[in-house]
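Problem 12. The chain below contains 483 residues. Write out its predicted structure in token notation.
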Amino acid sequence: MILDSVQPDGNQSLASLSREEIREKFRQCMREADTFIKERKFEQAKSKLAEASRFDPTNPYLTAFRERIQLYERNPELLSTRKSTIVAKPSLKPTQTKEVSKTTEELPSYSPTMVENKIRDQIDVEYKMKFTEELKRAELQASEKIKNFDKKGRDRLHTLAEQFQSRYNQQIAAERQKAQRDAEAALEEERINLKKQHDQLIKEQNENIKKIRAELRKEIEQNFLKRFEQVSRQYDLKMELLQVKIPQTREEALELYREKLRKSYSNGEPTVEGAKQLMELKELLEITFDEHFSLEAQVRLDNYVATVQKKILTGEISLLKSEKLEALKQQFQITPEEESQIQSYIKSNIEKSKLKGRILVVDDDKALLDVLEVALNSSGYDVVKSLDVQGAYQLLKTTAVDLILCDIKFPEGELDGFKLFTTIQEEPLLRKIPFIFMSALIDGLIMRSGVQLGIDDYLTKPVDIDFLLAVIEGKIKRYRSLD
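Solution.
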């Protein structure tokens, strides 16, 4: 929990700081510590963590960062591979490695298979190097044996020549021609026999080389399968962290991280183990600290609002009794600034739940606003009105509604209804509210644009009141069931 006042050691400098200033100083220390870790400056990182603990000594991220530093100090080689992307689980046989590498080279730079390509390329290079080394060794051995055999053959030929020469000298007087013919015939026969023996030895050596190659290939394939299993286990771990779905865009990565934060912060702040997992996921998705703190603030506010509304509706707490509300604020670390932003919205939301429904109608035609107000009031709905989109947006900040009924074109000549819709979609507390356009414009392009933006319905003027009431009732029922 972030310190509210002076530290136990008597440090008076924190007493003059607001909770938000202390939180920002803590975040700055964590950013700098994260940077030092990536630069292998572990002592500076530890110093920054010690400084951060002055502002929030119980924050679970401190433990997560200290364990990261210990891990990198023991295994510095991990730091060069920490910034990784997600790899798809390989499923190809070793004989298909070349085809896979050709395919992966065509993927775009942001593809999550970049690490897979790198790993497979490394395996392929190691495979080729080892295979080439063993092949050269086998060829050298075979060449040495062939040289030895050739030498023995030459020695044997030399010996035979000397024998035949001796016989020739002994019988030269009487059988010169016969001895010469016999010698030549014998030499020719011996040459043929030697050639046959030479060919047989070459064949045997080739068979041995093939056998050695097969054994080497089998050994390399076994090593490859072991590496494949390791990669598969790493892939399964990452899939578990990502909860199976692999984000393909930056928006999907941020949304996935937001969902993980929402679960981890369901009780106000994460556990130490939850903080470790968040840090792992943050690095895996390459989420910056600024993005982390922004998403964390949104999640805390959303969870706080939902918890307060639930406990008020169930009677566990009351807006008149602030003790339990203060406990919830402490639990979700709500600052006074954040409280002032959402207090009026919570009260309005509680009041809204007691009605059949509250509808915001936005149109520059005052007469039409009055007609719609009478019709909706008579059907049991509360109505708030606005003549322009700016006023409507301000109303939404303090008033909870179940449905927005808005015109498209206003006197300024611009399609301000579209602007209001896109602005609301950027607000976590407002973007789920059903939004219906109504307009006298029957332009097909405008209608398609509204549908592409994600509006819930489109009604043309003049509006049929009975049809409008039926649409409103259905949308509000669905909205409240989802809410």
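Discussion. The longest helix spans residues 114-241. Students who got a different answer should revisit the alignment rule from Section 12.3.
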